[in-house]
Write a structure and sequence with these properties.
Elements (H helix, E strand, L loop, with lengths): L5 E5 L6 H16 L5 E5 L4 H7 L4 E4 L4 H4 L2 H8 L9 H8 L1 H10 L7 E5 L1 H6 L1 H12 L3 E5 L9 E3 L5 H9 L4 E6 L4 E10 L2 E4 L3 E4 L7 H5 L5 E3 L6 H17 L5 E8 L5 E7 L9 H8 L4 H16 L1
Parallel strand pairs: 1-2, 1-3
Antiparallel strand pairs: 4-7, 5-6, 5-7, 8-9, 8-10, 8-12, 10-11, 12-13
Helix pairs in contact: 1-13
GO cellular component, one term: cytoplasm
GO molecular function, one term: metal ion binding
Organism: Actinomadura rubteroloni
Length: about 325
Amino acid sequence: MELGHVVVLAGGLSYEREVSLRSGRRVADALRALDVPVELRDADATLLDALARDRPDAVFPVLHGTAGEDGSVRGVLELLELPYIGARPDACRVAWDKPAAKAVVRRAGVSTPRSVALPKEIFYDLGAAAVLDRIVSRLGLPLFVKPTRGGSALGASVVREAADLSAAMVGCFAYGDAALVEQYVSGTEVAVSVIERPSGPVALPAVEIVAPHGLYDYTARYDAGDTAFVTPARLSTAAADAATAAAVTAHRALGLRDLSRTDLIVDASGEVRFLEVNVAPGMTETSLLPRAVAAAGLDLGTVCRDLLVRRLDETR
């Protein structure tokens, strides 16, 4: 099938707007290199009128942050009966909520670090000091603190001393109303991207992340040169197979579609633990899914085009 008019959605108003715009430009350029007619549009107040005025054959959302990953924009695309790439709204809502996603993936047989999710209000109601003391007593140290919803490691930090937990929670609450506090697992951090083929979801080579100071934060993710990446990841055959299986299991268990990226940690014994999943993986020059695509000997534009063609085939 020959693709006609495709809209790539990027931007929006989340904290990750600039990253989304960079991702959108990369996808649009990759498709244009294959002579696919592409329009790059922002997710703003002009969008719906533009889609109605010049209805595209399909939409490729590359929106990061709340509206792009919680299913809301995709729900609007379904109201418009427009085919689009990526998970459907219900699946997005579960994957976007990190504690909910962890619970689903854990039930599917994939290990996750022990954790607790707490809304900001609980500290006012029960007393911050008492709650923080109990967290340390129950989960131990070090800990990893991050918003229950959100991406690009915004508001995330490692806590190695009990005295630093309060500040970490304050930093986390600057980006969300609830915090996920989990045991910090030392090991090799890897990202495994999954793309769907006619035969089903297929995992691409794992990308190992070697971040400065051991924290793959916002700066390390998007400033070229700050972080080293090794593809394929330096894992034993058994650990690499387990990481692949964990990513495909997460993709299936969460009911995702077309593409996803699962973040994992592999400890010294080779045990793989699920950290989180991304339904709208970054597509920038430093992002992990494009690196995995290249490591698999594939072309990013071809992968994106094939996903669009398959989505159109399934909707017609």
